[in-house]
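Notes on consecutive records. When two proteins share a document, each keeps its own sequence and its own token line. Never mix them. Below: protein one.
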Amino acid sequence: MVEIVCCLRLNDSLARHLLMPIARHPNVSRLWVIRHAKIRDFEMPNIEYVLAPARFKIWRFIQMIRICLTLSKREQVKGFVSFNPIPYGLFSYVAARRHKKAVHFGFIGSDWNFHATSRWGRWLLLPIARKADLVTVTGRTTLRQTLQLGFDRKKVAVLPHSIELERFPIADPTQTKYSCIFVGRLVNLKRVDLILQAFAKVLKNHPDAKLCIVGDGPLAPELKTQARRLGITEAVDFVGFVPKQQPYLSAAKIVIVASSSEGFPYVLVEGMCTGLVPVSTPVGTIPDVIINGENGLLFPPNDSNALALCINRLLDEPQLYEKIRANVLKMRQNFTIENTIAVWDSWLSKLDVPTESNLQFDP
């Protein structure tokens, strides 16, 4: 049995999804979570929080580094897990190497796209990440990119997304309130403005259609103004941030991702497990999972006409919608926590053994 340290921020939902498989792993006796606050609705007997709730970022970071260094001295602590490499991966790396503990770097989304192409990433972060004992990515596409950039195949793994399926029961598509739903931060990367443009075109053919926007962010006022300018205010519900998205997903038929850059967003997993049909841009590792016309529809980035066409097809062709939805539900068991635990097992089960060769991931 080992103790693991994880230093992270992330939103509550994403942090829960990523930590649950580690917390449930049979070889983990305690998971130390260093964070600004406890994760709401997430109580596990082997999780222990060490909080750094400082208001100012720089002071919070200093506290987190100190906590990481303190925990690294514990004999029972055998490894550090990190998601988002800057700054939390760097904090973990410094603390782990200070006391010769294993360290993991997890790339979970557009963070990989940025660090793999930026000068900062290529000259500072990637050389450090290549020295980690385990690196996880979201899909085969990113895995190929890591190998092209000199990562050791024995230390890189695809970490499948997983959720607690019982928290996302299959919804009844005949009892829906919304035609489409978006869930996420209201920032430029997510291209919610494109979704609004497309939905205005959908309403010309389907005047009773409704769109739900779940999330908050700096673009919220601008997007609401855009909806008014397009004359679709009555058809769009901006519900803001909500701690539990499942009730809104259960009230929709189609889940939309219009991002210009992604890894594989968890909202697609949550939506698909609820029985929603995904409509998405083919960015990041999304095409590794979603096959156009089979278990979703894909459209080119920055193309509101193509997005509107996808939505109209699903609303106009019930047979197509039902075919895709049936294929989506067949994938539900691909997203169980047990599948993710199995990937962690090849690393966590060896942390009791002090030899460095045993800290590698077996592909």
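Protein two starts on the next line and is unrelated to protein one.
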Amino acid sequence: MSQSHLTNTTFASLQLPEILQQGIEKAGFSYCTPIQAEALPITLAGNDILGQAQTGTGKTAAFLVSAINRLLATPRADQPRCLILAPTRELAVQIHNDALPLCQFTDLKVGAVFGGTGYDTQKDMLEAGVDLLVATPGRVIDFYKQRLFNLKQIEVMVLDEADRMFDLGFIKDIRYLLRQMPPPQKRLNMLFSATMPCRVTELAYEHMNNPKMVKIAAEFMTADKVEQYVYYTSNEEKIPLLLGILKSGDMTRTLVFANTRHATNRIAEYLLGNGFETAILSGEVPQKTRMALLKRFQAGELPILVATDVAARGLHIESISHVINFDLPQDAEDYVHRIGRTARAGATGEAYSFACEQYAFSLPEIEAYVGNKIAVRSIDPALLVTPQPRKRLKSAASDKGASPGRHARKGDREQTSSQHHKKRRRGPKPAAGGTPPTSP
């Protein structure tokens, strides 16, 4: 992996506690990324931060190191002292897994609560006590209202992917949780996001203590080492073209994005019917299954994953070689986050997008947002593979459309791209001051 994404600032130069420094070294970190080099001196000095950087640049380690440093400097309590809020189950699990090696030489207890699975296990963990808690909003409010813990001892609050919190309609839940904590002046507050719209900065200045802004700009809005291409294709050519690209390239680990769960089922059935091992990652897949699929994909046992935008943010999976937008997203920011799954942390990658009859209208907005034209590739007839029949999935939704997953708890369900797009156009609903949201 390229080291060009790192700075000359070392973690050893930050004068961290020895037991934290040991965890950092064990995790394989030596030099800081730009967001870490800029953010850590601010947060380690006890100041709040509003941080913006591209996805995959080390925001998670920045706030974890800051949080652990703060907890090690203060007395233990019988309640959570750090709450890290994430918009999705997958991101919560990712943050939890990143926190464990950093805390391995300390006596800090790390836990995670999220919807879809593990309800009783998570409940038992909270009853046993935890110092650093990673959570999705719906599930943590559920447990909070059961009085399994309180938030009066919170010393560190982290809001990750804040823009996504708005997109998914969690902002009322977030405000409710923030009001249960000590005043902003009595805690360390960190907000990190890939984009920083006005509604996010307004939230920060309302619930944080004079946060300092850190923005790590990139040459382009998208990862500068992603080679991007677009194919203008008819709807009927999309499956043949997808099969041809997969057969022709050295694609060690590929994410294929579609806009709906129905489309992911159809794509996966064609891939399975044509000799490609693949699986689906969407909101209707049970949480335990999703975690197992991500583990296999991360380990290289599963070469292709077909996903909705549930996989577009927050997940750090090493060595994704290609991203294919089978459907162009209807929102330009989603394009950035999708192709940001490859070329992470200095690596390189390729992204192919199909501008079809249904979604080609999104391309001008995407190009305007990323600030450059995406290179057009003509369709070589040799790439149009005649597909073999689909291999029907037992759990696949019918051709009439996919229904919402029964396994998702209220507040943790994903939205389809069309729902997400409409929500963005409407804007967030005003929060009801101090009124607790309906328990997810």
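For the record: Residues 89-103 form the longest helix (15 residues).
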